[in-house]
Model the fold of this input.
Amino acid sequence: MITLTNLSKIFRTELIETHALREVNLQVEEGEFAALTGPSGSGKSTLLNILGTLESFDSGDYLLDGKSINGLSDSALSKLRNEKIGFIFQGFNLIKDYSIFDNIELPLRYRGLKPAERKQRIEHALELVGLHARRHYFPSQLSGGQQQRVAIARAIAGKPRILLADEPTGNLDSLMARQVMELLEQINQQGCTILMVTHDPDQARRAGRNIQIIDGQLHDSTLYEPLSAQSA
Amino acid sequence: MEQFIYYLKVSFKGIKRAPLPYALTIFILSVGLGVFFANATFYYQLNRDPLPHKSDKLFFPMLNLVPYECSTDCKTPSVLSYNNVEKLSQTDIPTQAAAMYSADGYLRQSTEQAPLPVSIRITQRDFFSLFDVPVLHGSIWPDNSARHEVILTKSSAEKLFGRTNVIGEKLLLDDRNVTVAAVLDTWQMLPRLYDANNQNHLSDTDDIYLPLETGYDMNYLSNTQSQTFDDTDYRQLSTQGRTGALHQLQYWVQLDTPAQQQRYWQFMANLVQDEKAAGRHPSAPNNQLVAMRNIVSYFGGESSDIKAFALVTLLFLLVCLFNASHLSLNRYLSNQYEFSLRRALGASRSQLQLQMLADVLLMAIFTIIGALITGFAGIKLMNQLLPANSLFSNWDLPLLLSLLVIAFVCSYLVTLYPSLRASFGTLNQQLKE
Done:
């Protein structure tokens, strides 16, 4: 589904060049739940942003569903983000003066869906994250965990094939973090490919695969037995 | 449409988030545009062409036909003597022609009534067709002969009789009997270019119209411009005014084609040659034939005050635009996170530009309202400061439409750069900020 070939990314300032990613090669299959781990500054988030087309890369190739995203126009990239990719950010990134419903509606608006279909998708996503009753609330009226669940609902309302999560539990306490992880596992079980940046080894273990990045290089790509299978 | 309404809602949300900077932006734009628009109103009205379909066909002929040889200021007089006009009238080259001047008088229905001061245009029958004057009741004089018949404007008829259909009614013009031959429909030629030679073109139209021959018979002297080049007793206009060198007549001719104009020009040249040969033209020939379109600039009647104001207010508008743009940039940059989030979630730049158009539309609406209020106040103030120009403070449809366009363009300019700045940039970095 995702194929990266010799992908490199350099951040340049007037004085310094930083090699964020060095000739990364990666293959992610459909339905995988992969954790991106590594020390701070190793390039995890950069890789996730490149996968989400939020950031460009300097060399190499990125194939999504067998098609290179190199040279795609802004509108093509926007369409791709809108239809195929869902984002979950560490800071939730909800618009404060929009209701929960309006926040989730945001990506659907740009897809040109009819109001009835938007409503149906939003309500389905809200039911999945357990916040249907609070759809008219504003983000400030919700706890951190609930806000992240809203962000997840926004990410999955568009029925994306890939979900990119950048430290989705980074701002949550352990209980809330567990709930969010359970939700992500549930979404993954429905067939959605998930790539998640995390510092938490337990969460990395819960994902089916751990992709470790150190100094911009892919060091290890460990396949774990899922926790559910271990406990069985 | 549903999406555009959504964009408008988003714009309103943006305004609610920071109402003060937004209000300040609108205020600055409104003041700049309003002041500019107030001045533009006068500039446009003062410089407009009241007869665009024929202003290049109406001409003001002038001859240097005076009994003295000019030595210092050899400018051709802008007014003609009765005698000159007679000579110019001897040709049938012009489609229409009329001599005219204005005088003051008093009008009343009977000696028991208090006299009403009136401005009289003393002219010939072609005046009304030359300048497209509409007639409401009655008919214009059939020829240019003397007759004690006046033509009233609609407002004069209403003022005197309280009605407009007053054909055949008797009046006393300076206590001499006259009959009403016609009543004009509402008519205001602004500026009155036929009176531009004495720079009286910015004043109101005259109240009544009297035949030229009758005006001379009644000894009416011009109240604006008259020059004597001999010993004519101007008080005896009816007897000596027609033969002496008392110059007080404006003369307008309609020459529809270039060929007609050329022929008339040649006619004037021949006339002057004949007069020289007869010893009646001591000065060097200096004939002029000025088109109505150029009459104001020919006589230097352009209002330099308004021109200077126009420049100042344009500069003021530019300063306002710059300031409003700066405020707008701050507002957009503070919203950059939301722009980036929308892009990350799949909005294309073109969709964000549509969002910007909704912002522009809202800003234009508010700005137009503000500019209209400021412009109206500005016009009231200008009318106080320059009451002579108050006739030129009206807004018409083209003027209002141009305000709408300018307000929209200004709103677009104020929004364009900031929104482009906000919609370009590194998504990832902006989302982290």
In short: The mean pLDDT of chain B is 89. Chain B has two domains: 2-50+303-432, 64-286.
